[in-house]
Design brief:
The protein has 157 residues and is mainly beta. A hairpin with a 7-residue loop joins strand 7 and strand 8. The longest helix has 14 residues. Helices cover 9% and strands 38% of the residues. The protein has one domain: Immunoglobulin-like. Strands 1, 2, 3 and 6 form a four-stranded antiparallel β-sheet that branches. It has a four-stranded antiparallel β-sheet with strand order 5-4-7-8, with helices on one face. The chain has one helix and eight strands, in the order H-E-E-E-E-E-E-E-E.
């Protein structure tokens, strides 16, 4: 599972332009991330704005993803690998264009997710969404390391 997740994050990062608990990947990620408040729906649901408190000592790529069910209700199937592509998630917004400052200090920043990158679809609605906030290093799958990773359900308002 970890190998597939890392591969998916790496491929996605290279293909595109570049109450919450803290979580990191068990493969040695040393960063910290937690959400601050809910995701805010913007542009008729085609964009979401979220605030994250995070830290990372290294990182060259940031990926932020939100997936949601048709009704906005929690659907644990969305957490699974391959839930995008409209198979399970009826909304999928993300970004690789945002940046994270990785200098070891704790920072609070706002990040936008939207449909600008290929393959994204649907509209956010009130409820919950599956968030993946991921900072990685490297430029190829072989040298990529996840430094900060936060997967969790978040409120959407």
């Amino acid at each position: 599972m970890k190998k597939h997740l890392l591969a998916a994050i790496t491929v996605a990062a290279l293909a595109a332009p570049a109450s919450a608990s803290a979580q990191t990947l068990p493969t040695g990620g040393v960063g910290f991330a937690r959400t601050v408040g809910p995701v805010h729906i913007q542009k008729g649901g085609q964009q979401g704005l979220l605030t994250v408190r995070y830290s990372c000592s290294a990182g060259t790529h940031l990926w932020v993803s939100l997936k949601q069910s048709r009704t906005g209700a929690l659907d644990d199937n969305i957490r699974g690998e391959g839930s995008g592509g409209r198979k399970v998630a009826k909304t999928w917004l993300d970004t690789h264009r945002e940046t994270a400052t990785c200098d070891g200090r704790r920072r609070t920043a706002q990040f936008y997710v939207d449909q600008a990158e290929p393959g994204k679809y649907g509209r956010l609605r009130r409820g919950v969404a599956w968030l993946q906030f991921c900072v990685t290093t490297g430029t190829t799958e072989a040298d990529t390391k996840v430094t900060t990773y936060l997967p969790k359900w978040v409120r959407v308002r």
